[in-house]
Amino acid sequence: MRVDIVTAFRRAGAATIAADASPLAPALYHADAYAIVPLQDDPGYVPALRDLVAAHGVDLIVPVTDIDQQVVSEQRRVLGAPVLLPEHEVVLTTSDKYRSHLTFEALGVGSPPTWLPEALPDELEFPVLVKARFGFGSQHIYRALDRPQLDRMLGRTPVASMVQAVCRGEEFSIDVFCDWDGRCVNSVPRTMIESKGGESIKGMTVDDPALIDLGKRVAEGLPLRGPGTIQCFREPGGAHSVTDVNPRFGGAFPLPLAAGARYPELALALANGERPEPRVGEFRPGVVMTRFLSDVCLVDVGDGTLEPLVPERIDG
Q1: Long-range contacts made by residues 10-15, C-beta under 8 angstroms, separation at least 24?
Q2: Is 306 a member of any domain?
């Protein structure tokens, strides 16, 4: 789905090779070349990526979803090119929302009170959220209004879960980028005007020093390497609570890009062995993004492969 990321890297001067398990993945047809690979839990997945790196002389591997982060970060040393992900332990931490909560607390970063189901206090302030510990796309998140409802939800949810206090303030996301040493190169906060399935579809960049600094502290505290999206709330009293960190380009990637963050250029600089100087807070505030659906129409060219359909001209 990440046509925006593929096209942004092409515009930054990179030759792009897209890989997906489905020939219907639209981003494949916006890259310079593409390949169909096994699913990430297939033993052939890592060898397929390694072969692509060798065949195309790849200088940088850029995971664009949460799906394969763990296997790619763990196997990075056999892939033949640097991977734009933090160390494997950091990937494991950010993929586990309860472990992330404990890490935020250890870093001195605000995080909403969170408990495992077997360690719930006798007294809880409702409502609370039942949230999947592992997962993405806002799946398996439920709001419980009282203790009986909470017990029912915990008994019915099909995934490992945790319980978290409801944040009552305004929600923000902070798009950050770090170099190989974990230094934050930039931190771009944005509002969450509207989201669907956990992904922002409307938002605006904001010049907010407290959020810019929060993004930098979290990114360097973990530390991240490459991109990250930090989700947080500003509580009514002004304190910030971080709920999630995704070590990848965010769903609203076009917004920091339009605001001048230059994240693809920074990634290419890392691939070239450069060490970009931090430019934290250098972006254009007040840029508004509103997203829309688009499409790629494909046709079988006769050998089972698909190519984009070129519409016929209608003259006259």
Answers
A1: 11/264, 12/264, 12/265, 12/268, 13/268, 14/60, 14/264, 14/268, 15/56
A2: no
The answer to whether residues 99 and 74 belong to one domain is no
Predicted pLDDT of residue 34: 97
Does 127 sit behind a cis peptide bond, omega within 30 degrees of 0 on the bond before it? Answer: yes
Q: Tell me the CA distances in angstroms from 81 to 33, 42, 76, 89, one per residue in order.
A: 17, 21, 8, 19
Q: Kindly tell me the burial class for residue 235, based on how many C-beta atoms sit within 10 Å of its own C-beta (0-12, 13-18, 19 or more).
A: middle
Q: Do 100 and 182 belong to one domain?
A: yes
Q: How far apart are CA 260 and CA 271, in angstroms?
A: 20
- Tokens 């799946």 correspond to 139
Taking only Cα atoms into account, the Rg of the chain, rounded to an integer number of angstroms, comes to: 21
> Given the DSSP bridges, would you call strands 17-20 and 33-36 parallel, antiparallel or unpaired?
parallel
Cis upstream peptide for 254 (omega within 30°): no
203 inside domain? yes
* pLDDT for the residue numbered 315: 62
In a domain, 300, yes or no: no
Interatomic CA distance for residues 191 and 115, integer angstroms: 28
Task: Identify the domain boundary among 43, 64, 83.
Answer: 83
Q: Do 12 and 144 have their domain in common?
A: no
CATH number of the domain that residue 42 is part of: 3.40.50.20
What does the pLDDT look like over 234-293, one tens digit per residue? 999 999 999 999 999 999 999 999 999 999 999 999 999 999 999 999 999 999 999 999
43 CB contacts (<8 Å, ≥6 apart)?
Answer: none
Average pLDDT, the chain: 95
Quick: pLDDT tens for 18-74. 999 999 999 999 999 999 999 999 999 999 999 999 999 999 999 999 999 999 999
pLDDT tens digit string along 126-181? 999 999 999 776 788 999 999 999 999 999 999 999 999 999 999 999 999 999 99
Q: C-alpha distances in angstroms, 201 versus 41, 109, 242?
A: 30, 27, 20
Residue 250 sits in a domain whose CATH number is 3.30.470.20
Split into its structural domains, the chain has a count of 3
